[in-house]
Automatic annotation (TrEMBL):
The complex is composed of six subunits: RnfA, RnfB, RnfC, RnfD, RnfE and RnfG. GO terms for biological process: electron transport chain; transmembrane transport. InterPro entries: NqrB/RnfD (IPR004338), RnfD_bac (IPR011303). The gene is rnfD. Pfam families: NQR2_RnfD_RnfE. It comes from Chromatocurvus halotolerans. It is found in: Cell inner membrane. It comes from the Bacteria. The lineage of its organism: Bacteria, Pseudomonadati, Pseudomonadota, Gammaproteobacteria, Cellvibrionales. Part of a membrane-bound complex that couples electron transfer with translocation of ions across the membrane. This is Ion-translocating oxidoreductase complex subunit D.
Amino acid sequence: MALLRVTSPHAHGAQDTTQVMQSVLLATLPGVAVMTWFFGPGTLVNILFGSMVAVAMETVALALRRRPILRTLDDHSAVVTASLLCISLPPYSPWWLIVIGMGSAIWLAKHFYGGLGYNPFNPAMVGYVVLLISFPVQMTSWAPPRGTGAELPSFLEALRACFAPQTYDAVTMATALDVVKQNSGLTLEALWRESPQLGRWAGAGWEWVSLAFLAGGLWMLKKRLFTWHAPVGMLLSITLLSALFYDEGSSASKGSPLFHLLGGATLFGAFFIITDPVSSAVSNRGRLVYGALIGALVYIIRVAGNYPDAVAFAVLIMNFAAPFIDHYTQPRTYGHRVRPPT
């Protein structure tokens, strides 16, 4: 009997790829809602426009590759990629920034390698890193959150910022990770008093956004869309390293464990990015190692590197290393015993 040869991602149980992608989109809703509350409708505009661009680019790529268009678009993978990338972008990003990011994610990171299931790197993170390296000013221009004295733009102003950026006077503020990274003379207690964007633990608004993405991630975990190994490995690694090197808040301190867990894209990355079944490790033990190494890289780059939030760089580095991890963490073949050492 001939066996059907199919590529990843492989469906387990009753859920197919479309249902998994729809569940991921639903899981992002709490985080997007909290981002909209604290930063205004800019993220919503990013996602709506980015999704339309991603679907159009996916259609062009499928047509050029002579692949079925409607059946492939129905898996919603392009919309998921667009949503994850646009959530990572600053609100009120200009249209051309979103277009370049989508082109890098859909064409370069996905279809250049053969489409869904063949991409060795996470498409959303490829798009993000291309934009961060190429346009650092635009990618670090975050709007001030609610509660810091700034007035949040309306939906029409968000549309103008996207499609007519030259007519929109953006008000920006450094993120909490950037403020702590650039600090050189104040203790953390003094820095928190002088910087309203630092919020209570890890950035005004950011801590609640992170908790909302944590809720969505736990819901996906309950639905068994992925196993716990990669997220736990990443979060445990960051917690241990930040606790080990935390010096109780001197001027040289780079933040407490709670600051690193709730700040930036830590929880978003742990549940929505590193759990990608295509570009991560395969076995449970491999996923645990994969997540732990990503967490270590995130902390190292945040403390010693040039970028305050390093989730995208850490994920891409470990995407490259995932086959190596798989090679050394293969589970025992069913029906065979482990060979005793000689």
